Amino acid sequence: MNPRIEVVAMDALMLRLFDRIEEDNLPWLLAARQRIVEAFGAALLDLVPSYTTLMLHYDVTRLDLAEARRRLAAALDGLRVPEDDGGARHTLPVWYDPRVGPELTRLAERGGLEPADVIRLHSERDYRVFALGFAPGFAFMGLVDPRLAAPRLDTPRQRVAAGSVGIAERQTAAYPLVSPGGWNLIGRTPARLFDRQRDGYSLLRPGDRVRFEAIDHATFLRLGGDDTPLAPTGRAAA
């Protein structure tokens, strides 16, 4: 970890903790976020985590730049990751099938694998939620096995079904809502990822751990899944 503080606006600082995206970054980012919340108190207006950074907005009527820097530096002093680094654990059932995951076969061919290998590799590990973005409840998770890594499609779909599970580079995600998208789709989950009646709306939050669990078609339908097929689209970039 190599902390640097950067001024990005008259009321905002960027704390850059790492230079590369790694799974081990997240516990440190979460620990730093908690310390910053405590250090700034009511003067903190917003705190936005990313893969390697934390951007904080503070109330300039309460703090000047020098005091904001001092509080941020104090928050990092002696920073440690607790033994329990927080985050909920989730198991998301997934029906892996070309009818709802049109790139399942393509990813297998790309990696010299069988579709069953893609399913096994994707569902045999836990993924940390790095960040939420793109759409409400859309959780960027990683990292997938290198054999599954693939670039986004060169021609994104105009409509991706809610629950669609995909891969882009070494990240994986499930679309919470119907939206455009260019990820390589390999299946679909019946889980409700975004719900306005839920506290915080999103099922998944940064720091959570997610395991995907393969289910059959009958179970998918019983859990409320929509099996409307999706057609293949433009090929992934070379």
Describe what you observe in this structure.
With 238 residues, the chain is α+β, with helices and mostly antiparallel strands. The chain has 2 domains: 4-76, 2-Layer Sandwich (Gyrase A, domain 2), CATH 3.30.1360; 89-222, Beta Barrel (Cyclophilin). It has helices spanning 25-40, 65-76, 104-110, 115-123, 217-222; strands spanning 4-9, 12-16, 44-49, 53-58, 89-94, 127-132, 139-142, 157-160, 164-168, 171-174, 179-181, 184-188, 209-214. The longest helix is centred in the N-terminal third of the chain and has 16 residues, at 25-40. The chain is elongated and about 60 Å long. The mean pLDDT is 91.
Proportion in helices = 10-25%
The strand count comes to 13
Main-sheet strand order equals 5-13-6-7-10-9-12
Number of helical elements: 5
Provide the residue-averaged pLDDT.
Answer: 91
Taken as a percent bin, the fraction of beta residues is: 25-35%
H/E topology pattern: EEHEEHEHHEEEEEEEEH
- Determine and state the CATH class of the largest domain: Mainly Beta
Low-confidence stretches: none
CATH-assigned fold name of the largest domain: Cyclophilin
Cα end-to-end separation: 33 Å
Biggest β-sheet: count, sense, barrel?
A: 7 strands, mixed
Specify the CATH homologous superfamily of the largest domain: Cyclophilin-like
**Helix/strand/pairing category:** alpha+beta
